[in-house]
Every structure is written in structure tokens, then in C-alpha cells.
Amino acid sequence: MGSNQLVAFAIAAIFVLPTIAMAAEYVVGDNNGWKTDVNYTEWASGKVFYVGDKLVFTYGPPHNVYKVDGAGFKDCKPSGDLYSTGNDTFTLMKSGKKWYICGYNDHCQKGQKLVINVESNGPVPAPIPAPTATPTATPSPTPASNDSYRSFVLSWYQIFLAAIVTMVVAAF
Ligand SMILES: [Cu+2]
Q1: What are the boundaries of the signal sequence (predicted)?
Q2: What is the rounded distance in angstroms from the CA atom of residue 138 to the CA atom of residue 104?
Q3: From ligand 1's centre to the CA of 145, what distance in Å?
Q4: Fewest Cβ atoms closer than 10 Å to its Cβ: which of 9, 80, 104, 170?
Q5: Assigned CATH for 25-119
Q6: Please, which residues have CB within 8 angstroms of residue 24's CB and are 6 or more apart in sequence?
């Protein structure tokens, strides 16, 4: 039972930990946040976004965020859900292009628009050959030796107890 949990943990560690370690969080515009008069194309250039990464839009009123399609981005036409908390996080779920605009007034026309390209996770596959060996190697030996060690200790404890009982009985 304990070794199964160990194997499960090892598998989880191999597959899950690298993805967690690699997921990045980007504050759109960095210190500028989300507003007009910031070049978001410039901000995005040189960054590589992967599935699992997060975009955080930080802003004050009257700004907002709409996640639109290519046409909505080009024409500055809001559609879909309105995000207006001032701190909106978007997890990049799929690869491909993503478009975001501010729907307030002419802010989008003034450049408050962001397009990024999301890559499917590339660098992860490297450690994958390893796990096939790990589960087969661990299962049987650990519980067997553990059990035999336990029964070994138990039997010595019984002998010790028996010896004390014998001594006590002999004393009377
Ligand atoms: Cu705005």
C-alpha cells in the first residue's frame, strides 16, 4: 500500500511539477498595467507564452477587458464577456492567437489592445522517457522487506516478553 502511494507520488512529481515550475504569470504592460498610450505589441514581443501561463490585466476605471477574436481586435469591436474587476487573470488554455482589447470609448483605437501567440508546451517532453522505468522498479521489494523486518522485531519482542514472564514466574 505504501509503495503504491510512493509510485503515485513519483509519477505525479515527474509529470506535474515541471508544468507548475514552468507556468509563468505575466502582468500585461508590467508597471504600466493596462491603459492607453502603451505599446502592447512591443510589450509582447520577445516573450514566449505557453499553455498554462497566465495573463494578468491590472487597471483602474474606466478601463476593462474583452477577450475578442481577430476581427474584433482589428476593428476594436468588443464581444463576449466583460471583465472589469481591475485585476483580471486569464489562464492561457489553448495554443494559438489570443486577442484582448479595452472596450471603453476609443481606448482600443488608442492602442489599448493586445495580441499574443500561445505555444503548446514545447520544452516539457524531455523527461518523459524516465517514468516507464520508475513504476516497475519499486513495487514488490519494499513491502516485503518492511514486513519481514516488522515480524522480526515482533518476534524478538515476543521472546523478550516471554523471557520476562518466565523470570517473573520463576521469582515467585
Ligand atoms: Cu481603457
Answers
A1: 1-23
A2: 59
A3: 66
A4: 170
A5: 2.60.40.420
A6: 49, 50, 53, 54
Give the pLDDT of residue 170.
72
pLDDT digits (tens, 9 = 90+) for 67-99: 999 999 999 999 999 999 999 999 999 999 999
Distance CA 116, CA 92 (A): 10
Distance CA 34, CA 59 (A): 5
Distance 47 CA to ligand 1 centre (A): 23
Query: What's the CA-to-centroid distance between 165 and ligand 1, angstroms?
Result: 86
Res 145: pLDDT: 45
Q: Which residue has the higher pLDDT, 45 or 146?
A: 45
- Across 39-61, b (16+ Cβ under 10 Å) vs e yields ebeebbeeeebbbbbebebbbee
Distance of CA 105 from the midpoint of ligand 1 (Å): 7
Cα(109) to ligand 1 centroid in Å equals 10
DSSP reduced 3-state for 114: strand
Q: What cell was used for 89? A: 487573470
CA of 94 to the centre of ligand 1 (A): 26
Local structure of 14: helix, strand or coil? helix
**What is the spatial order of strands in the sheet that 82-83 belongs to?**
49-50, 113-119, 96-101, 65-68, 82-83
